[in-house]
Amino acid sequence: MTDPPPLSSYVMNSTLLSTTAAVIGGGGDGDPPRGLTKIGSGGRTRSRSSNSTGGLSLPEKRRRKKSKEPISMISDRIGIDRRWDVFRSVPRDQDAFEPRWTKLAAQGLKLVMYVILHGLVLTSGLIAKLLVLLMAANLRNESTYIPCKPLGFQNAYIAQAPEPKPEFASTWFYWGLWLAMCVPQLLILLRSARVVVFKGVPNPSIYLFCASFIVESLKTVGQCLLVFFILPELDSVRGAMLLGAVAVIPCFLSLLASVYTAVVERHRISVAIADVLALLGQLSALCLWWILDADLPNPILMVCALVLCSLSWWENYVTKTSDFRPIRFLGKIKDRMARSRYKLSMVFSLWNCFLSWFIMLLAAGDAHDIQTLFQFSAPFGNATTMSDEEIVWNDHSRHTIWMFVLVALCSWVCYTASKFACKVRMDWFSYAVPTIIILPAVVLFLFAFCEARRVNPCFLAGVIPDTAFWRCDDGVSNHYVWAFGIWFLSYAWTAHHIFTQKSGRLSKTDTLFVTPMYDGLMVDQSLALNRRRVHAKRIKTQALREHDEMTAQGRLPDDDFDGASLAGDSEHSVALSTTSLSMFNREVDQLTKIYICATLWHETPTEMVQMLKSIVRMDEDQSARRNAQKYLKVVDPDYYEMEAHVFFDDAWEDDDKLGRVPNMFVHQLFMLVSEAVRDVHKTTVELRPPLKVDTAYGGRIVFTLPGDNRLFVHLKDKKKVRNKKRWSQVMYMYYLLGHRIMDVITDTARKQVLADNTYILAIDGDSKFEPSAVQKLVDLMKKHSSLGSACGRIHPIGRGVMVWYQKFEYAIAHWFQKAAEHVFGCVLCAPGCFSLFRASALMDDNVMHKYTKTPVEPHHFVQYDQGEDRWLSTLLLKQGYRIEYAAAADAETYAPEGFDEFYNQRRRWTPSSIANTIDLLADFKRASANNDSISRLYILYQMMVIMFSLIGPAIIFTMLVFAQTAAFGVDSQTMLIYNIIPVVTFALLCFIAGSKAQLLFAKFASVVYAFIMMAVVVATGIQIVIETFLSPTSMFVLSMVLIFSTAAFLHPREFPNIIYGAIFFLMIPCTYVFMALYSLINLNVINWGTREAAAKAAGKNINETIVQRWMKRIFPKRKKAADAENGESETVDWDCSHLCPCLCRPQQTSLTEQQFVWVGQQLERIDRKMDMQMAGARRMPLNVLSDPEFVQETPKQPFNRLVRNGAGQLTADGGGNEAMPKLLLTDATPPSGNRTTASPTIDTTPSLENKRRIYRTVSESAVNELAEMQTGALSSGELSDASDGDSISSFGSSGDLLDARARNRRR
Fold this sequence. Notes:
It contains 45 helices and 20 strands.
């Protein structure tokens, strides 16, 4: 053990740290003590990084972790002022923590799924192809077969003498092949019928119908010629080889496009050469047969069959964006067919079945007598009454039927597994590889089977019947092997896009495959050639680099941009920050822009920090994507720009000395921003001082997050603008859409592009989500331009019985209701806690303009304000936009934990949902005409839902009565009386008593009925045991349990929610009877009732303790003299000095209050001096001039109305020049929209620089005096230093001068 190194070689910042280092410094080999950083050769300590992230960068930490190098812990902890304070407690995010075994289990499960899907696709495709060739080989009229007799021991057979085949031996093979062809057509018919019935599909034109009819008929004829005429004439090995040459038309179309590109644009020449070779390889199959097999009958028929079969996939190789005119013309036809595909498929699916049946009759008549097709042997007859020969051919018929079933089933499994692999993005290994190797695997298996059959005539005798086997000739020459190699390589090149095509997240079948179904007889070819070819759009990273450089230099891309700066020269306009990309590169206009908009009120710290951490995670993800594109030259198709806005309702309160100041919840949010950043980045991060701005609606705080994205906190003053969530949404939609897009940008074409690629993520003040969940919503929006909104899976969190109930309620609502709405029509409600909205949809006619309507009629209060998210969704649906549900986009939000809060929440939701659904049903003709996803049948479904919602309480009440009758053995009339008494009593209480009495009775009734339901459960279980599961009650209960259990198994991550079904069952009377009455009878109550809204509405102090409430009852109330004189409401100033004068000291005026009084006097003196020097100019609030950073915002025209011109493009009509929409202003707000404060006003000159210069000259002495007075208080910690950006009191009328000392020191 060596001596410890001298303590002078370590970081020493205080006596405490030195003592600690001396104690723990007994390391070996000269290593520094744990937790201390050794000084380098230059004698300097390790300092924090200059990028404000603190400590080592994340890549550096990962590198050192892998190399097991020691990482400095102090470098991440030490502060600037208190370097000795290195100890900390880092909060652990329990929700984000995953044990190691869960990660390993997830990786193992993913690997298992890769293998399972690969095996399913390969095995099912191989079996289907082998059975098709087996059935086709037995269509020939061969006269004899070799029967195999089983021996005494297992799996041993002996060949017998050949026996003749009857005439009807091939009957079931014809019908089996035809039925295998028709199964996919019937599936297409069912799918098309569902889409046409529940969604709007345009009618095709006569020209399009005729063209589609010709193409469908030709490809059906080609397939029938190949199966019923060509393959029976060939041996099975050569027939399998021939199936590699069914891509003639796709090769030809691909060649035309690539050759034109190579000749005209002088690039991709190698691709054109490969396409030429592939086409030559496919064409060689049309002529090599004549050379290799001169005895082949009907060679011209084979050429026609191959060419016509390849017509099935012509749509995948044409595009309307091609530069070659014929390809572009075919691409336009393809797009028209795609729009009307489901109506065309309903007709052509039946036609294809009929046409193939007719060709099958012709083929059977050519090879046999046509009557042979109708000579069926009984496949399931009684063997005891049959002869040995009849038993053999009955077994033959039965095996043939099973072959058809296996072909149909294996084809469907292969298609379904391939589709699933593409949707879960396992397509390369689990879809592309097995799909391509099916064909050569079939050839190899047939080679092996034929060789084994040649050696042992009873090979596979126990697997397939003796009367059926693949046709095997004496041998296949080497010429065919080489020819098959050429055909297969050309086919593989034509379908090589399945290896390079990247599947999108949550891709639908229509986006994965051109036609929505598969080919029943050639499933592998249809999966490979039908996979949609999509050329990904690449966004240049040069524009992003130029944008970052110009932003860093503070230069503007356009000289004529008119925007108000927020912070002098160092900060440019917020509107510019989101639009400057597109001002010098039009491609960047197509970048995804996400505005995260949160509505906040009086959330708890836990809820606020959860929402802030979600925003910080988005900032981290966006920053990583931007750096990857900027420095690593990575082209990220999922790149997006983001900006966060938090709209704080009721953020101001009155102060006796300062006037209107931010309340305690604003201070709480201000402090939690740094905490959220620290928790996400797992290190101490020093944010820049936030920017504070006076606005017409109150105030604004602008934070710069570590990822260089901005977080805007808008502090709404309820005395200036309307409060509540809907009006906050109106504010950010008008500001972000009306001002940022319509007012700032002048180019109409750019407005439309930006509106289509701009999204608003609406969240609540307690929402928790991951960037991956947002990306899934964005993927949905990008796939369909008609999609107006997308919502995710909401998970309620919290503690208590009520939260358990809501966990199960939310689970079944998403598993069944939202999924059903998504499939049969569209989702009716995009919840405001986590939904993504398209900007162009919100800016459309009859959406935002109607959303801003003030309630006038009684039902308006219920429909507009009680469920604002449902009201906005209804407007989008009626305008023609679709709302979709993404089950994989998970988000969490705090659910009501108390009984009263839960009841008040549902009191709002239930009437609002009913009112909006009735509004949609009342206007169903317009909704069906505008929205393709809302059909008449879907309207009928919603009518049934609303009807059962209205009569649901009566149904539940009746079921309760009869369930209790069966459980307790009491007659139904007695149980009816017992149950109707509490229901009627509660209804009367809802009419005559207050909300407190109603909720108290509902609580008591819920507990009583919970015990009754437990007794019902026990009695029902006994009844099921006695009557067995065949009784109606048992079947009903077991079927419900089976349905919920199956849904839970299909959602393994949410399976624990099924446990809370017991709580849900016990609370059925409470939630379906009493809550329905409470909601409907209290329609006149329009407040929200959640959190402390009810207490405030009743004039109660929500922060009162139990002792204080009892003091109110014991001692009389006193009015404040000042409030009594002003005629304000009665308030109470409580203290305990009159009870315990020895323990409670009298209230005294603090030093801070004395300083604010002095500040007010100084302001009055400054006001008088400036009045004398600047008389005659216009008036301006003093608090604007008190700080150069505090600039009054007066936007030019931020809230123009949004309209569409005749071409359907977004324009501004020029109206609405006011600084804020009048619909947002309260009655006390001045018409100009500018903020009115209690601060003195002065006359100034028009120039802002002159205003600042005069103010600095006049107030120099006053500022110096203020600074001297504040020195003592600041040193003692009683006043915060606003220069550090940690004080938000500068929004007050006199608090603006708190920063004066620091600025005066700098000057």
